DNA sequence: TATGAATGAGCGTTCATTCAT
DNA sequence: TATGAATGAACGCTCATTCAT
C-alpha cells in the first residue's frame, strides 16, 4: 500500500522521508517540488519514484512516519507513568520539548494537509481521532480513580490537544510554562468560592 | 500593498473579495482558479487583476477582510456584556453560531496558507496578539472583580482561543456543547477534594 | 464531443488542424510534440488546448476531417458517374491524383494510428468498414446490371481498397498506370481460355 | 550497425529478438518498455544493451529477422511447387496460415514504425522490391507457359502483395477465403461477355 | 473600464540509458 | 559478462497573467 514492494536500500527510503519532512515542513505540499526533495536527499528526481509511487504518497508516508514516531514516543513515556494526573503533565512536557528539539515540527503544524484530497483528509481525521481517544482513555481512568471529577472525557481530551497550540508561535514555549497551563486546566479559571466554605 | 490605487467601484472590489471567500473556502487556494472567482463575482477574469495584483494578494486581502470582520463582530457583541464571566460565555456562543451560520469559515481553517509572505504573517500575528490581549483584558477584569482566581491572563486567553478549535471538524459543534466547555475551563478537571475540606 | 464548445476563431481551429495534419503526417503520433503543432500554426502551446482537449483528440479530429474531406471528394466525383465500371475507374484516378497533389497523404498512410488506444482503433476500423461498404455497394449495382459477374462484393471492395497501396512508395504512381491496374482487376490474370472457344 | 561486435552467446541475442517480437507485437513500440522485453527473455534490463545499442535498434533488428524468416519460409514453400498458378495459390494459403499460427504477426502490422531511419527504410524497400520481383518472376513464367495472359508482371505482383492486406483485421481471415480471392484475381471482376459469344 | 483569447513557465511522472558492482 | 539501482531528459497539460480590443 505504501511503497512499491521490496526496496534495495531501506536507508535511502529513510533518507528520502527525512528530506520530505524537511521540505514539506518548510514549504507545504503544493509549493514543494519533488525535485527539491530529491536534491535535499542528494539523489536524482527519478529515484524518489523508486521508493514512492507519487508525491502524494510521499507526503502520506512521511506524515505517517512522523506521527507514528511522535505518538510512539509520547505513548511510551506516558506508559512509564501510572498516575493519570502525572501522565497528562508528562504529555505536555514531552510535547513542548519535542517541539523545541525539532522546530520543523512546529512548521508542520502550521501546514494543513487536509486539502490534498478527501481520502487524505479522512485519514488525517482518523489519526487525530485516535490521538483524542488515547488521551480520553487516560482521563477516564482518572475519573475512575476519583482524581478527576466526572466530565466529558472526550471533550477534555480535545481541549487538551487543542491547548497544545498555545505553545506554537507567536506564543512560543518560552512565553508560557507547562506548569501554568496544567494548573489552569486542572483547577479552572474560577475562584473556588464554594470550596472555600 | 493591497490594491492598485483608487478604484472607481469599491463595490466591485468588495464583491470580488466575497467571491474569493466563497470559492477559496470551499476549494482551497491551489485548487481555486482565478476564473472561478471571477465567474462567481459575475465579472471577467481580467477584471480581477484591475483590483488585485495577483491571486496570492487576493487571498491575503480576503483573509484580512474576513478576520477583521470576524473580530469586529465578536468584539462588538462582547461589548454588550459587562460581566467577564458572561463575556466569555458569550464569546463561545457567538463563535460557534458564526461557524454554524457560515460553514465556509470552518473550511477556511482547513486549507494550506503556507505561502503567506512574511509581511502578511506578521500582520496575522499582530491581529492574533490583539485578540489575545482583548480576551486577556476581560480576564484581568474578572480577576479584579474576584470572579476569577489570580492567574496568567494571557495564558488563559491563549488557551481560550486555542480551545475554539474544539468546535472544528472532526469534532463539529454538534459533538460538544459550549456550556460543557465553559464549565470545564472555568472549574477545571480535578475533583476539588482539598477545597471541600 | 470533439471540441470544447463554441470557439472564438473557427479559422484558428482550422489552422491548427492543418498544422496537425502536416506534423502528424511527417512524424507520426508519438514522435509529434504538441508544441511542434503549435509552432507550425504560429501560435502558443496553450492555445491548442483552447480548441482541443488533448493531443489524442487533436489527432482524432484531424483524421476525421481528412477522411471526411477525402471521402466526400471521392463520393462526390463518383456520384457524377452512373456506370459502375466507370465509377471504379474514376475512383482510382481520383485517388492517385489526390496522392500526387498532397504528398503528405502518402505519409499519413504509412503511419498506423490504430495503436493510440482501443477506442481509436475501433473508430478507425469503423471508418474503413464504411468505405468498404460504399465500394461494395457500387459493385453490387454492377452485378445487378450484369456488368460484373456474381462475386463476393465485399471481398472485391476490400481488394480494391488494398490495391490502392500499389501506388504508395516505393512503387509510386509513376511506376504503374491506373488503366493497367483497372484492367488487371477487371479482367483477371488468367488467359481466358474458355472464352476463346 | 546491428550489434556491438561479436557476442559470446548468440543464443541469448536470438532469445532477446524473440522476446522483442513477442512484446513489440502485442503492445507496439512506444508502449513497450525495454524492461518488459528483458523480463520476457528472462534476463536483466542492462543485458539487452550488451547486444543492442538502443531500443530502436532492437526493433529494427527484430523486424529484419522476422521479415527475413517470413520471406524465406514463403520462398522455400513456393520452391516446392512448379506450376505458377499453384505457386500463387500456395502463397496465399501459406500467408494466411502463417497469420493464423502467429497472431502476433497481425499485430505487428498495426503498429507505428514511423521512426525507422532512412537506412532501415531503404533496407525495407529493398526487401519489398525483392519480394515483388520474386512474385513477378513466377508470373512471368506463367505468362511464358500461357497460363497467364500477357500483363505487367510487376504490377500484378504488387497487387498480389497488396491484396494480402485483405486478410488483416477488421476483415480477418475468417471473413474471406483464399479461394475466393484467388478466383477474383485470376478471373477478374467483369462478366466475360465477349468471351461468351 | 472591462474583457477573455492567448501565452508559456512550470511540474509530476516515465523510462531509455548508464555504470558501479 | 550480467545486473538493476540510479539518473535526468522529455512531454502533456494547467492556469496565472497579460494585452489587444
Characteristics:
homotetramer; 197 residues; mainly alpha; Arc Repressor Mutant, subunit A; 2 domains; 10 helices; TetR/AcrR family transcriptional regulator (chains A, B, C, D); HTH_TetR (chains A, B, C, D); DNA-binding (chains A, B, C, D); DNA binding (chains A, B, C, D)
Brief write-up:
With about 200 residues, chain A is mostly helical. Chain A is about 70% helix and about 0% strand.
What would your notes on this structure say?
The structure is a homotetramer. Chain A is mostly helical. Chain A has 2 domains: about 1-60, Orthogonal Bundle (Arc Repressor Mutant, subunit A); about 80-195, Tetracycline Repressor, domain 2, CATH 1.10.357. Chain A has helices spanning about 10-25, 35-40, 45-50, 55-80, 85-100, 105-110, 120-145, 155-165, 180-185, 195. Chain A starts with 9 loop residues before the first helix and ends with a helix. Chains in contact: A-B, C-D. The interface between A and B is large, with 54 and 52 residues. Chains A, B, C, D: It comes from Caldalkalibacillus thermarum (strain TA2.A1). Chains A, B, C, D: This is TetR/AcrR family transcriptional regulator. Chains A, B, C, D: Keywords: DNA-binding, Repressor, Transcription, Transcription regulation.
Molecular shape of chain A = elongated
Taken as a percent bin, the fraction of beta residues of chain A is: under 5%
**Overall residue-averaged pLDDT value of chain A:** 85
The top-level CATH class of the largest domain in chain A is Mainly Alpha
Q: What name goes with the CATH superfamily of the largest domain in chain A?
A: Tetracycline Repressor, domain 2
Number of domains of chain A: 2
Q: What ranges of chain A have pLDDT less than 50 throughout 5 or more consecutive residues?
A: none
Second CATH tier, the architecture of the largest domain in chain A: Orthogonal Bundle
Structural class of chain A: mainly alpha
Total strands of chain A: the figure is 0
How would you sum up the major sheet of chain A?
none
Amino acid at each position: 500500500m505504501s511503497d512499491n514492494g521490496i526496496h534495495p536500500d531501506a536507508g535511502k527510503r529513510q533518507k528520502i522521508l527525512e528530506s520530505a519532512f524537511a521540505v514539506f515542513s518548510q514549504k507545504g505540499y503544493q509549493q514543494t517540488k519533488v525535485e527539491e526533495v530529491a536534491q535535499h536527499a542528494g539523489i536524482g528526481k527519478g529515484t524518489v519514484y523508486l521508493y514512492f509511487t507519487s508525491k502524494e504518497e510521499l507526503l502520506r508516508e512521511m506524515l505517517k512516519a512522523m506521527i507514528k514516531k511522535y505518538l510512539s514516543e509520547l505513548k511510551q513515556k506516558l506508559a512509564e507513568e501510572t498516575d493519570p494526573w502525572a501522565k497528562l503533565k508528562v504529555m505536555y512536557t514531552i510535547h513542548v520539548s519535542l517541539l523545541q528539539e525539532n522546530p520543523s515540527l512546529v512548521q508542520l503544524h502550521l501546514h494543513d494537509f487536509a486539502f490534498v484530497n478527501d481520502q487524505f483528509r479522512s485519514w488525517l481525521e482518523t489519526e487525530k481521532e485516535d490521538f483524542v481517544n488515547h488521551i480520553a482513555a487516560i482521563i477516564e481512568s482518572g475519573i475512575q480513580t476519583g482524581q478527576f471529577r466526572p466530565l466529558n472525557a472526550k471533550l477534555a481530551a480535545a481541549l487538551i490537544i487543542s491547548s497544545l497550540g498555545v505553545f506554537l508561535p507567536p506564543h512560543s514555549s518560552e512565553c508560557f510554562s507547562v506548569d501554568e497551563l496544567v494548573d489552569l486546566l486542572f483547577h479552572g479559571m474560577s475562584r473556588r468560592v464554594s470550596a472555600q466554605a
